[in-house]
From TrEMBL:
Protein name: Protein FAM33A
Domain Ska2 N-terminal: 2-116
Lineage: Eukaryota, Metazoa, Chordata, Craniata, Vertebrata
Family: Belongs to the SKA2 family.
Signal peptide bounds: none
GO molecular function, one term: microtubule binding
Gene3D superfamilies: 6.10.250.1380
Organism for this UniProt entry: Seriola dumerili
Amino acid sequence: METTVDKLEAMFLKSEADLEYIEKRLRLDFINSTAESGSPAEENPAVMLENLTVIKAKHAELCSQVKEIAAAQKESMDSIRNNLGSVMKLIQDLQQTTDVEVQPLTESEQQSADLLASADSQTTREVPPDAAALANGSH
């Protein structure tokens, strides 16, 4: 049984070596054919694949950063919304206990309150839900 495992291991090692040789040979062939045809190096498929790998890595990093920024933005908006709600409740309580009327919100104050109320839905629309999947490279 041990000899069979050793043979299989040797076969896998040979296969890996063969694949590495084929990859190097293909790269060399691409480089030579690009040079012979007078094409720029950027049109070399091997170079294009390497560039694509770098671009994919940068894309994944950016997706991860976008996810972190969106989470921080949501946390900030939740905090602002909670604080604003507490202040509004406090004002209402003070109005009721002191019999003092507070002037209604000005137009700009009302617009700000409306913006805060709608900010959460806008945040979730701006960041695609599969940003995490993109960051992990599953697309």
